[in-house]
Specification:
This protein has 20 helices and four strands. The protein is mostly helical and 495 residues long.
Length: 495
């Protein structure tokens, strides 16, 4: 059995390599990474927005639209010019904050990567020191097992021996005097490299996503639950009852700074990212935000397939009956689902049906059941009513609106309460909401249902016509064959 002193546990470790750092070359030659971090999210915003605007104007994928072009004109309470103006204002604020944030960060350096990987390999070596004691608590003799395995499996024996590899040495010069010291194993360096290059960055991005989702959920929800905050700040964003891509950052400037710019900055800092990681994070967040407002349920869009928080899910939040639901953005929906604020009424609107049928047709090969809003209508009857249990009682102005102007009708249960609270919030907004919003949406809903019925009749008629045409062809062919058969039989009988 090998004995090691307490001093040896942390002193008898492989030496760390020397390193010399230099400035990391810019990702794009001629543009410093800190400047690229400022301009890349803005470039991503307008690039993706103009792509969706292009397919809008060319009408390339009408089957996947969540709303018709006519709805964009009739239901939105703000002109496209005002949207562009306010987005540019927010991006100017974003630019100032991003530049200031960059000034607080040290320049990214290169040349230390081998050293950092070795630090992780040392941590793995130190972790192995606990193995003999852990085995002893379970009643196993790790040192004895190591001795038996040493001839055939020396690496495994070294692990069981607490990270002491007797035959693995390197020569290190201490103050000019060569000295034999322990060396790292191949598996330690490989695992340390994976931790340094992949696992730690993935963890940083995961932390940043959780922070920004948490920040935006609770602030966004507060802006809907507090009447003053909604009418003073957040109602501006909801002038877009029919969202489109470049309206994603159409906000009150204070809200845009608080909800988006500050939230992403805090996530970046807490995750401990470097400048280049921040650039990718800010750009990806921008892409996701634009895609969530694009107005299309595209079955082949990777951003809409990776997470259920997508254009269909967020579109519910822009409708008069779902405005107090689906607060989560921009990445995942876990806070909505944990706290019971996800919409429970299913694909209640006829507007979603065309997109759903198109997506279902594309997905039929994989037997997927498609839903545009990622909502299960059965949840309305089974989910806890909180936090909407009092919304219908508090919707004091809603009974004054005729039921025919409260379309679409949500299912009974939680969805009915969610719709009542949402429509009351529209009525509370005297500047950008009011009864006319509900009336206009009801008109559009009735037109969408009528269009679906007409298309259904055309599909049925077309199907019947094809069936009758095939039947007629079959009868004609059969009749012809029967007649010919009779002649042939007669000929045979005359022989």
């Amino acid at each position: 059995m090998t004995n090691h002193s307490t001093f040896d546990l942390y002193s008898d470790l492989p030496p760390l390599p020397q390193y010399q750092t230099s400035l990391l070359p810019s990702l794009v030659p001629g543009i410093p990474d800190k400047l690229l971090t400022v301009i890349a999210p803005i470039g991503a915003y307008w690039t993706l927005s103009m792509f969706f605007h292009w397919i809008d104007t060319k009408d390339y994928f009408p089957q996947y639209r969540l709303h018709t072009p006519a709805e964009v004109s009739s239901r939105n309470k703000v002109s496209r010019w005002e949207v562009v103006r306010d987005v540019v204002v927010q991006q100017l604020i974003q630019t100032v904050v991003a530049w200031g944030l960059g000034m607080t960060e040290p320049d990214d350096l290169t040349g230390k990567e081998e050293y950092d990987v070795a630090v992780w390999a040392r941590r793995l070596r130190i972790a192995q020191r606990a193995i003999p004691g852990t085995f002893a608590m379970a009643g196993f003799d790790a040192a004895g097992l190591a001795k038996n395995l040493a001839p055939s499996h020396p690496v495994l024996a070294g692990i069981l021996n607490g990270g002491y590899y007797s035959n693995l040495q390197t020569v290190s010069a201490d103050y000019g005097n060569p000295k034999s010291k322990p060396d790292f194993t191949a598996w330690e360096l490989a695992l340390a490299g994976a931790l340094y290059w992949y696992l730690v960055p993935a963890l940083q991005y995961g932390i940043a996503i959780i922070v920004v989702d948490t920040w935006q959920y609770f602030l966004h929800r507060a802006m809907h639950m507090n009447k003053w905050m909604y009418t003073t700040f957040h109602s501006r964003h909801h002038r877009l009852y029919v969202p489109y891509a470049y309206g994603a950052l159409y906000n009150h400037p204070f809200e845009g700074f608080l909800l988006d710019t500050l939230g992403a900055s805090i996530a970046y800092k807490l995750a401990g990212m470097n400048t280049r990681q921040g650039m990718w994070f800010f750009t990806a967040s921008t892409f996701k935000t634009v895609d969530d407002h694009c107005g299309y349920a595209l079955p082949w869009d990777p951003l809409q397939r990776l997470t259920s928080n997508n254009a269909g899910y967020h579109d519910v939040h822009h409708q008069s009956w779902g405005i107090k639901t689906n607060f989560s953005q921009p990445f995942f929906t876990f806070w909505d689902r944990l706290l019971g604020t996800v919409w429970t009424g299913g694909d209640v609107s006829a507007r979603y049906e065309k997109a759903r049928l198109a997506a279902q047709k594309k997905a039929d090969q994989s037997n997927q059941k498609i839903t545009i809003t990622h909502s299960n209508v059965a949840d309305s009857a089974t989910q806890d009513l909180r936090p909407y249990q009092d919304d219908k009682k508090n919707a004091t102005d809603l009974p004054l609106i005729p039921s025919c102007d409260q379309e679409p009708l949500p299912p009974k249960g939680k969805a009915e309460l969610q719709a009542a609270g949402s429509r009351q919030q529209i009525l509370d907004d005297k500047q950008d909401g009011g009864p006319q919003v509900l009336i206009q949406e009801a008109i559009e809903e009735k037109e969408a249902r009528s269009l679906l019925r007409r298309e259904g009749r055309r599909r049925t008629a077309s199907s019947l016509s094809q069936t009758e045409g095939l039947k007629g062809l079959k009868d004609r062919v059969t009749g012809s064959m029967h007649g010919r058969a009779g002649v042939l039989i007669g000929m045979e009988s005359n022989r």
